[in-house]
Amino acid sequence: MGRLVLYLCGYRDVERQRLSDATCTALQLANFWQDVSRDLDIGRIYIPLDAAAAQGLTESDIVERRFDERYVRLMKDLIVRTRTLFAEGQPLAEIVDGRLSVDLEMFTRGGLAVLDAIETMGYDTLHHRPAVSKLKQATLLGRTLVSTS
Questions:
Q1: What is the dihedral of CA 6, 12, 15, 17, to 10 degrees?
Q2: Rounded to an integer, what distance in angstroms lies between the CA atom of residue 68 and that of residue 61?
Q3: Residue 37 and residue 45: Cα distance in Å, rounded?
Q4: CA dihedral in degrees (129, 122, 117, 76; nearest 10)?
Q5: Around Cβ 84, how many Cβ atoms within 10 Å?
Q6: Beta-carbon contacts of residue 147 (< 8 Å; ≥ 6 apart)
Q7: What pTM value is reported for the model?
């Protein structure tokens, strides 16, 4: 979707596409980490099993919702990787115009807020879905509008 939006807004260069890919990937990953419990309810796992195995977790540990230090380590690792992608894509908001800049900045701030919420709740996305409150969303929008003016 990101590349299509860039194209429709007249941006066709490789660097903006690369930055967009990083942001879009980070957003999708943040959504996956946020929705682990919902996805398990419908028989889906988006957690990379190789990353889980690196922490000593199996697919059945995830399906059976075994929350322990191994899962905390897994989520911490996945969040670090996702924050890195957000940071990689961040410059895109500074090299596009107007409304698109605001939207990109909000996507990044919102995604990072989801990661913060996961950390705040102790990483237990096996049993709970972290949320970003309406007040927090309004605060993010205010900060975004101030920083992009």
A1: 40
A2: 10
A3: 9
A4: -100
A5: 12
A6: 105
A7: 0.89
Q: Which residue has tokens 């309406």?
A: 134
Nearest to residue 30, comparing CAs of 78, 67, 73?
A: 78
Predicted confidence (pLDDT) at residue 133 exceeds the cutoff of 70: no
% helix, strand, coil for the chain, step of 5: 75, 0, 25
Considering only CA atoms, which of 70, 105, 87, 99 is closest in space to residue 26? Answer: 87
What CA–CA distance (Å, rounded) separates 142 from 74? 33
Number of neighbouring beta carbons within 10 Å of residue 77 = 14
Question: Half-sphere exposure of 33 toward its Cβ, with a 13 Å CA cutoff?
Answer: 33
- Average pLDDT on 78-94 reads 97
The first and second tokens of residue 62, run together, are 């995830």
For 134, residues 6+ apart whose C-beta sits below 8 A from its C-beta are none
SS3 state at 57: coil
Whether the Cβ atoms of residue 36 and residue 47 lie closer than 8 Å to each other: yes
User: In this predicted model, what pLDDT tens digit does every residue of 53-70 receive, in sequence order?
Assistant: 999 999 999 999 999 999
Count of beta carbons in the 10 Å neighbourhood of residue 133: 10
Residue 137 scores a pLDDT above 80: no
